[in-house]
Amino acid sequence: MSILLEEVARKKLRHLQENHKKRELAGSVRYGNAALRRDGKTLVSFSCNDYLGLSQHPLVKEAAIKAVEQYGTGAGASRLVTGNHPLYEALETQLAAWKNAESCLVFGSGYLANTGIIPALMDRQDLIIADKLVHACLMDGARLSGAKLLRFKHNDVQDADRMLREQRGHYRHCLIITEEIFSMDGDIAPLEVLGGLARRYDSWLMVDGAHGINGGQYEGVDIAMGTLSKAFGSYGGYVCAKKAVIDLMKNQARSFIFTTGLPPAVIASASAALHIMRENPDLLELPLANARMFTRAAGLPEAQSPIVPLILGSAEKALAASAYMAEKGFLVTAIRPPTVPENTARLRFAFSALHRQEDILTMAEYVQNGIIWG
Ligand SMILES: *Cc1c(COP(=O)(O)O)cnc(C)c1O
After folding, report:
1. Intervals of the chain under pLDDT 50
2. Is 49 one of the annotated active-site residues of the chain?
3. Residue 370 burial by CB count (10 A; 0-12/13-18/19+): exposed, middle or buried?
4. Are 61 and 269 in contact (CB under 8 A)?
5. What per-residue confidence (pLDDT) applies to 219?
6. Which ligand 1 atom sits nearest the alpha carbon of residue 112?
7. How far is the C-alpha of 192 from the C-alpha of 175, rounded, in Å?
8. How far is the CA of 208 from the centre of ligand 1 (A)?
9. CB 127 within 8 A of CB 168
10. Distance between CA atoms of 144 and 115, rounded to whole angstroms?
11. What is the DSSP letter of 234?
C-alpha cells in the first residue's frame, strides 16, 4: 500500500486550518492612492510596503516602459554570463552613493540577497548572533551558512553582550545580525550600541534595512542590506559594503551566481524611484508622519516607523479583526505565526505617503473604540 502524496498534503492542510494558520491567495488589483480592489470591493490598503507610492509613479512607470523598449523583457542569463545589462551598473553606482558606501551589488530579491550574503561570509567555524525577531530570510541565510547560530532577546544589547562574552572566543569569525526597522513590529534596532559591541568583540555587524527609506550609513555597519521591493516600488535586493566584500559576493554568493539577472524594466524603475527619493526629501517624511497621526488618534504608543503593530494574541482574533476592517473598507492584513511568535498574532498597519488624512483618522476611530477586538 502506498501513501498518497495528496492525502498527506490534505492532512497537513487540515492541521493548519484547525489552528487558524491556513493561508490563501487573494486576487488583488492595486491602483492609485493606496487603493486596492479585492472580491469586487475597493479597499484602502494599509498592507502594502510601497511606502512612497512609487510603484504607481508616472516617472517610474515610464522608466520601466522605456527599458523594455530598449532592452526587451528579460535579462537572458545570469549576470555573470550575459545578463549584466548596462542599467545594473547605473543603479549600483547610485545605490552606493546614496548609502555612502564604497560599493554595492544588486541581487534578485531581498530574500535572495540574505540567503546569499551570509553563507558567502560565514561557515562552520564561525558564530552568528541574531536578534530573535529577524526576518525569516536572514534565518535561512544563517542556517545555510552552517555557522553556529544563537539568537539574542529582541533589541536587548545586554543579552547580546552576554552571548558574545561567553561564546565569541570559541569561534573564528563572528557576525551580528539585526534589522534597521523590524518588519512586523515597526521598532528600531540600537545600531550604534550593536556597532560598539561588534568592535569590542572583534565581530562584524550586518543590518537588514528592507523597511528603511533613508540613505546614509550607520557608523560601524559592515554589511548594509536592503530591498528594492518596498519603498522603491520595484523588485530586487541589494548589499552595500567595502569593495572587496562586494567582489567576494560576486564570486561566492550562490543566490547571485546561479540565477538569472533581473529584467531591465525592474532595474530601470528602481533607478527612477531612487532618483525621486533623493530629489524629494519631504516625501520621505510622510509615511512616519502618517503613522504618528494614526497612533495619536488611536491612543496607541507613538509610532517609531511607518509600521504599526496591534498585537491581538490568537490567530483567530487577528483574522476576525482583519475581516472587520475589510468590512469597513480598510485592508489590514492579519499577521500570524510562523511569521510572528506564537500568541502574538496581530494587525500590521503599514503607512504610505499616499494615505489620506480622513482615512487614517476614520481607521483610528475603529481601533480606539476597541470595536475590532471587543
Ligand atoms: C521583505 C523583507 C525582505 C525580503 O525582501 P524581498 O525583496 O521582498 O525579497 C528581507 N528582509 C526583511 C526584513 C523584509 O521585511
Report:
1. none
2. yes
3. exposed
4. yes
5. 83
6. 9
7. 15
8. 8
9. yes
10. 7
11. S
Query: Residue 205, SS3?
Result: strand
Q: What local confidence, expressed as pLDDT, does residue 374 receive?
A: 53
Which residues does a 6 A CB cutoff place in the pocket of ligand 1? Answer: 109-111, 114, 135, 137, 179, 183, 208, 210-211, 227, 229, 237
C-alpha cell at 90: 547605473
Residues 164-203 have pLDDT tens digits of 999 999 999 999 999 999 999 999 999 999 999 999 999 9
Give the distance (Å) from ligand 1 centre to CA of residue 213: 13
Q: DSSP labels for 279-345? A: H-HHHHHHHHHHHHHHHHHHTPPPPSSSEEEEEEESHHHHHHHHHHHHHTTEE--EE-TTTS-TT-E
Residue of 228, 230, 234 best suited for mutating to test ligand 1, as the one with most atoms within 8 Å of CB: 230
Q: Which residue has the cell 510601497?
A: 50
Nearest CA to ligand 1 atom 15: 183
Give this prediction's pTM. 0.96
pLDDT digits (tens, 9 = 90+) for 324-372: 999 999 999 999 998 999 999 999 999 999 999 999 999 999 998 876 5
Q: What is the pLDDT of residue 310?
A: 95
